[in-house]
Amino acid sequence: MKSDAAHAVFRIHLFAQTRFVFDGNPFKFSAPPRTLPLLAYLVMHRAAYLTREQIAFALWPDDKEDEAREKLRRHIYHLRRALPRSETPWIVVEDRTVRWNERADAWIDVNAFETCLSAARMDEAAQHYQGDLLPALYDDWILAARERFRSRYLALLVHLAEEASRRGDVHGGASFVHRLLAEDPWREDALRQLMRIRYKAGDRAGAIQAFRHFEERLRCEMRCEVMPETRALRDAIAGSRGPARLHAPPYDVISDPFAELSAKARRLAEIAATIGVSFDIEILRELCGWNECDLLDALDELQDRRLVRESPSRATFDYEFSHRLVYAAAYALAPPERRRRRHRRIARLLQRLHPNHPQITHLLTLHRQQAESVPAVARTSPGPVGVVANAY
Question: How many Cα atoms are found within 13 Å in the side-chain-facing hemisphere of 374?
Answer without folding.
Answer: 21
